[in-house]
Amino acid sequence: MSDLDKLDRAILGTLQADGRMPIARLAETVGLSETPCARRLKRLEQEGYIERYRAMLSRRRLGYGVLAYVSVRCAVHDRSLADRFEREVCAIERILSCHNVAGTADYILMVVARDLDDYGTFMRDELRSLPGVTAVESALSLRAVKSEGRLPLP
């Protein structure tokens, strides 16, 4: 992070808000001409500060009315079983994220479903049958207060 100057941070902050911003507008926003701005942007991408660009889709418009945060506990903490669990989780599209965590749960998942019936079927048929799973606890999101926050840039 020490390699980033004020202009680099301005570019990163601006792109977090609008990743599709044309280079001309980005340059104007951060106070550079297009060529130096494009060079800085390319360097930030090459150095890994920008991992990727993506569109944020509306889960509701796509028919996913349920968003659940799921705590998963595993009885056996065997590396090969954990690897199998993680591979299978990564192959399930409706699991948006999976984090191996410390605490009472082993993993926290973010899952989408069309409705509660769909979520119940998913829990019964897929989630509870994943390798090593012994307990599952769900917290259903009622509404998003803050979502996909921007990373702070010191």
Automatic annotation (TrEMBL):
GO terms for cellular component: cytosol. The gene is lrp_7. PROSITE patterns: HTH_ASNC_2. This is Leucine-responsive regulatory protein. Keywords: DNA-binding, Transcription, Transcription regulation. It comes from the Bacteria. Residues 4-65 form the HTH asnC-type domain. Coiled coil: none annotated. GO terms for molecular function: sequence-specific DNA binding. One of its GO terms (biological process) is regulation of DNA-templated transcription. Transmembrane segments: none annotated. Pfam families: AsnC_trans_reg, HTH_24.
